[in-house]
């Protein structure tokens, strides 16, 4: 399933997704807000914002893909660790 905002509201995109076996969830233009699509999008935007805290990921300096991927994985690990640590503190 693919969630998208009103910018992708066109039958061409829906057809392409269905052709690939993906069910589209695209908000229609002119429909009232509050349909719930923003709940899923916010998670993605928050994750990208968290990754941008790490300067080496904001602007890519490394030429080698494996080094960039290593920094990306390290940043994801740090983000998950911080979130887990905060959750565990709240439970105690």
Summarize the structure.
With 92 residues, the chain is mainly alpha-helical.
Descriptive notes:
With 92 residues, the chain is mainly alpha-helical. The protein has two domains: 37 residues, no CATH class; 41 residues, no CATH class. It has four helices and two strands, in the order βαβααα. It has a two-stranded parallel ribbon. The mean pLDDT is 82. It holds the Pfam family DDE_Tnp_1. This is IS5 family transposase.
DSSP summary: helix tally: 4
Quote the beta fraction: 5-15%
Let me know the number of strands.
2
Q: Number of folding domains?
A: 2
- Would you identify the regions where 5 or more consecutive residues have pLDDT less than 50? none
Distance between the termini: 37 Å
- What is the residue-mean pLDDT, rounded to a whole number? 82
Indicate the radius of gyration in whole angstroms: 18 Å
Q: What strand order characterises the main sheet? A: 1-2
Q: What kind of sheet is the major sheet?
A: 2 strands, parallel
Order of helices and strands: EHEHHH
Helix % is 55-70%
Q: Any chance you could write out the topology, listing elements then pairs?
A:
Elements: E1 2-4, H1 11-19, E2 24-26, H2 37-51, H3 55-58, H4 65-91
Parallel strand pairs: 1-2
For the structure shown, list the relevant keywords:
transposase activity, 92 residues, two-stranded parallel ribbon, mainly alpha, DNA binding, IS5 family transposase, single chain, extended, Transposase_11, 60% helix
């Amino acid at each position: 399933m693919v969630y998208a905002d009103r910018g992708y509201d066109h039958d061409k995109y829906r057809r392409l997704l269905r052709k690939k076996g993906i069910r589209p969830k695209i908000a229609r233009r002119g429909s009232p807000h509050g349909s719930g699509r923003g709940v899923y999008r916010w998670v993605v935007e928050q994750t990208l914002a968290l990754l941008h805290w790490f300067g080496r990921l904001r602007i890519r300096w490394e030429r080698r893909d494996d080094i960039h991927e290593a920094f990306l994985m390290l940043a994801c690990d740090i983000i998950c660790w911080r979130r887990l640590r905060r959750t565990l503190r709240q439970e105690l």
